[in-house]
Write a structure and sequence with these properties.
By secondary structure, this protein is an alpha+beta fold. The chain contains 19 helices and 25 strands. The strands form six sheets. A six-stranded antiparallel β-sheet has the order 16-17-18-19-15-20, with no helix packed on it.
Length: 642
């Protein structure tokens, strides 16, 4: 054991880091009645938004709504602090509709801090955690060789606990790069955490080096918006949280603006690539493929004549504007020259330079789908430490890690969401099962069952699970049951209510450019016509009940896409069969005959929990899966005999 000195306290859970992951982890643990302390290098950095000033976006909006359905805080917080909101992809099908809201960054952080400060069983502590305290695991019911017993701060204080949730974000051994200028700090100039990596490595945890970047911030007064395209929010705002009254989010919204780079911009970038840390070989970490710097865009998409640039306000009471789409690590003088070629930015003044940030993170294959380290009992991890990118990805991981840390301490079953249940399940499964050599970003294309996993039905999918966990109230649960019943009854009514081929009905159909009826039809069949909708049909449906907008939305989607939904449900059932085939934790892959060497190595490295998870590991072929299935059949038969 390490020497102890200074203060010694005893708590249930220690959460390391107070970003989006840490906030959700700490709130989940505290709300489940566990004495929790959340550590941060700066109390002023709680729920900090060091990069983009928004929550949600394509697929990310799904994550936030799922988090809210389970009992998380991010959706409620952005509903209180947004300044513009927009539903993306509305011209496409409902599977890819995603909410995105511009935040007042300072207000978002303040509001989340207020929630944490007033949460029972939760203590905020400004301190750097430099060591994890552990001892040998002697519990025969767990394969881990170590177990957590506490944490130690840089000042020597000891916090004894049985569970730790690591949510360190981009702070571990962080350094920021702006051309040749390198500062060893975390995001926004905050202090980096320079000691914890060594402790993790001493425990045998495999570390990696990743990088991400952020654009410059401009002084609003130096921008000519007349040369840009104004981007408005939605006329009718949809809240992120299912608990938010829709009327409370109908506010006066601020505008964003769209402009573009041009050939002159690209010339300046190409002429100075040798001064970019990315191309000069100074940056060691791997950057995100789906959120590239402007240098990467110009090099990798050389055929493109221009790239979109979004000017987004960072708050109502400041003049800083975020330059979306132009993250960079070029030197300050090159940045200014580059930005000033963009229409509307000819006389721009930079408030904060763009920069790249490098940081330590773990290889997530070391985690179970519960986000617990396989070899360390009581140690959980969430957010960018797991090799992901984005506030939303971080928040949902922090929540799941926090919930499972709490389940462990409360001797309850661990919670795993699978790929057919939630985008959260897709995200975590991808992280712990696949080879991720760059920061992972959630996308709708990663979800095989995205028609089932829509943002609009997140409460119907996950609210009950949140209730079972203990983070959804009885009142919220009863409201969910009532909503489900209303949807079911209205779908039945629509299928049973017949519409005759009367002149009045035929005239109605002609007016809406729809085929006339040869025989009677039910309302559900008419709703399926692309030119008709539930709302339009009200004219020939005088007996319809008065229903909330969210119920109507579900009724229409369920009827219109019934065939596609049923097909995906059949696919899910096949998927579930594979997930239900569990692999014993003590399996010896070397004793499995006919298993290829590569598959054997990968299976030993990842230790999948099921045949389904094994089938998604890169390097494990369908033939290997068949071999495994045969072996497990024999293994289980032998087990029963004994």
């Amino acid at each position: 054991m390490l020497k102890t000195s200074g203060i010694r306290e005893k708590v249930d859970v220690c959460v390391v880091g107070a970003g989006h992951a840490g906030c959700e982890a700490a709130l989940a643990c505290a709300r489940l009645g566990l004495e929790t302390v959340i550590f941060t290098v700066s109390v002023d950095s709680i729920a900090l938004m060091p990069c983009n000033p928004n929550i949600g976006g394509s697929s990310k909006g799904h994550l936030v709504r799922e988090l809210d359905a389970l009992g998380g805080e991010m959706g409620k917080n952005i509903d209180k602090t947004f300044i513009q909101s927009k539903m993306l992809n509305v011209s496409k099908g409902p599977a890819v509709h995603s909410l995105r809201a511009q935040a007042d960054k300072a207000e978002y952080s303040r509001a989340m801090r207020k929630v944490l400060e007033n949460q029972d069983h939760l203590t905020i502590k400004q301190a750097e955690i430099c060591e994890l305290l552990w001892e040998e695991n002697t519990d025969s019911d767990d394969n881990a060789t170590k177990k957590i017993v506490g944490v130690k701060t840089f000042t020597g204080a000891i916090y004894e606990c049985r569970a730790v949730v690591l949510c360190t974000g981009t702070y571990l051994n962080a350094r920021c790069l702006c051309g040749e200028a390198i500062t060893h700090t975390g995001p926004n100039g905050l202090m980096a955490a320079t000691h914890l990596t060594a402790s993790l490595e001493e425990m045998g945890i495999e570390m990696r080096r990743f990088k991400t970047g952020t654009p410059a911030r401009m002084d609003r007064r130096s921008i000519d918006f007349s040369k840009m395209e104004e981007q408005f929010g939605d006329e009718r705002v949809v809240p992120f949280s299912f608990s938010t009254n829709p009327e409370d989010v109908q506010i006066d919204q601020v505008s964003c603006y769209l402009t573009y780079t041009n050939e002159r911009t690209h010339e300046i970038i190409r002429a100075n690539l040798d001064r970019s840390p990315i191309y000069a070989g100074i940056i060691e970490g791997t950057g995100p493929r789906y959120c590239p710097s402007i240098e990467d865009k110009v090099v990798k998409f050389a055929e493109k004549e221009r790239h979109q640039v979004f000017m987004e306000p960072e708050g109502l009471h400041i003049n800083e504007m975020y330059v979306g789409g132009m993250s960079s690590s070029l030197p300050e003088d090159v940045q200014l020259a580059m930005y000033r070629t963009v229409p509307g930015l000819e006389h721009c003044k930079i408030v904060r330079n763009a920069y790249a940030i490098e940081y330590d993170c773990i290889n997530p294959k070391q985690l179970y789908p519960t986000l617990r380290f396989k070899d360390v009992k009581g140690l959980y991890s969430g957010g960018q430490l797991n090799g992901s990118s984005g506030y939303e990805e971080a928040a949902v991981q922090g929540f799941m890690a926090g919930v499972n840390a709490a389940m462990f301490l409360l001797s309850r079953e661990q919670i795993i969401l699978d790929r057919s249940e939630a985008y959260i399940g897709v995200l975590i499964d991808d992280l712990v099962t696949k080879e991720n050599n760059e920061p992972y970003r959630m996308m709708t294309s990663r979800a095989e069952y995205r028609l089932l996993l829509r943002q609009d039905n997140a409460d119907l999918r996950l609210r009950e699970k949140g209730y079972q966990i203990g983070l959804i109230s009885e009142e919220q649960y009863q409201s969910l049951l009532k909503k489900k019943q209303m949807i079911k009854e209205e779908i039945c009514r629509m299928k049973e209510h017949m519409v005759g081929a009367s002149k009045e009905n035929q005239d109605f159909l002609i007016r809406h450019n729809s085929s006339t009826l040869k025989t009677g039809s039910n309302l559900a069949e008419l709703v399926c016509r692309p030119e008709l909708s539930y709302e339009i049909l009200s004219e020939i449906d005088p007996d319809r009940p008065s229903l909330p907008a969210d119920v109507i939305e579900q009724v229409e989607i369920e009827i219109k896409y019934e065939g596609y939904i049923e097909r995906q449900l059949r696919q899910v059932e096949q998927f579930k069969k594979m997930e239900r085939k569990k692999i014993p934790a003590d399996i010896d892959y070397d004793s499995v005959p006919s298993l290829r060497i590569e598959a054997r190595q990968k299976l030993k490295s990842f230790h999948p929990m099921s045949i389904g998870q094994a089938s998604r590991i890169s390097g494990v072929s369908p033939a290997d899966v068949s071999v495994l299935l045969v072996y497990l059949e024999q293994y289980n038969r032998k087990d029963k005999v004994e």
